[in-house]
Amino acid sequence: MRYSNSTIPKTLSTIILLWLFFGVYRVQAANFDIQTLVPTCRVGNNISLQISLNSPDMAANAVQGTLRFAANEMSLIGLETKDSLVQFWVQEPLKNNVAGLISFEGAILNPGYLGKSGRILELTFNCRQEGNTTLSFSSGSILANDGKGTNILDKLASLNITILPKTSGTADATGIVAGTKISPKLILEPVARQTTAAIAAFAFKLQGAENPDYYEITLDKGVTEIWPMEKGSIYKTPPLDFGVHTLKVRAVYRSNFSLEANQEFTVDALALPIFKDLPAQITVNDPLGFEIITQYPLANVQLEFQSLKGGTPIVTVLTADNLGYLKVNLSGLFKVDSYLVKAKVLLNDNSASPYTAPVVLQVNEIPLKRFQALAILYLKITVVLGAIVIVLLSVVFYIIERIRRHNINYKKNLDQSFNSLDTEGKNIIELSDGVSGLSSTESQSLNRFQELLAKIKKVLYSTKL
Questions:
Q1: What is the pTM of this model?
Q2: What dihedral do alpha carbons 386, 388, 390, 395 form, nearest 10°?
Q3: 19 and 37 in a common domain
Q4: What is the pLDDT of residues 39-64, one digit of tens each?
Q5: Which of 36, 118, 288, 350 fits as disulfide partner to 85, beta carbons 3.0 to 4.6 Å?
Q6: For residues 164 and 40, is the Cβ–Cβ distance under 8 A?
Q7: Which of 314, 333, 365 is the last residue of a domain?
Q8: Strand partners, 328
């Protein structure tokens, strides 16, 4: 089949519009819900129901509905609006046990209701006839608080209820077995706990009483769980923390009679794993090899390596063999650092042992790199010291050279001065030799002058400059 160019855009536009319409509709959908603890009752007993509003995506400010039931199978004996989220009833809820219907219409003041399981009505029915019966909405509307009163009701709710036959003649209205001298009693009998799991199991045993309509189970201080008879008479706890726990069980009968039992029990901690041959230090590129011993075959072991510098730890999970042994061989995970190593056992039921005490693992540099780093450091120090020595030697040589040059010039000038003095002295002596009639004093002075020149010359030439 061929499509024209004008047909394809129209088709795409239609698909997009439909997607947008239904997509928005789903996001804004709301509905009624019919809730009960256990959807069973016995003929002659009562069952309580709650009509609730679910509007998680858009606030609702008005509700209206008609609920129908089989009048020959059930009879409405109670209708309660206390604690209802409806604050203004346009029409007070009506009940009709002949026609088998309940109708209501009310408003929720601004900003409306946004959420799940908002209570509208509480209903109590008396079960009249054995069999399966259905309560269902035949009509209804949920209006959004959007200024337009958009009906955001998605679907009409229904609930199937099983009506059981009356209690046999061997028990009275309380569930107590008639004609027995045994006092009615509920007993919690521990079932053998798995040796590798932090899970406890208990069997419910009744003495002098029939089976209840349901059990109420409270573990420690948690939320009470409704345990219908269809689940059997053995209760297994979820994985528990190690220590003392308390289990509280009530066997509940529709006649407001109940039996109660408490059981305190202890969950022992799983045995810690044991490190074997864990080295105190390795080099950064070496694999880390050691063994871990556990008491649990095929158990998982979680290893954690926390750097002493902080940050995110390195975590890995490995599996032990059939004997609980585990060989560890890890590589490429570590940097040069110090790590705290610890481990714990993990079992398939999510139970776990405590962590072992941390052990220090030192990861060192490769020796060659360490030698290279030291060599580079020494080379840097040598270069600096060499430069300092060269500078000092240059200064010393410069000073010596200046002194040497100064001495040469000094000696030259001194020689010139003495030569001039010596020449003049000789000239004076020669002149005195040609003069006659000198006194003895004058002759002595000339002699002394000549001796003085000789001494000066001797001193000058004997000194090394």
A1: 0.40
A2: -170
A3: yes
A4: 888 888 888 899 999 999 999 999 99
A5: 118
A6: yes
A7: 365
A8: 290
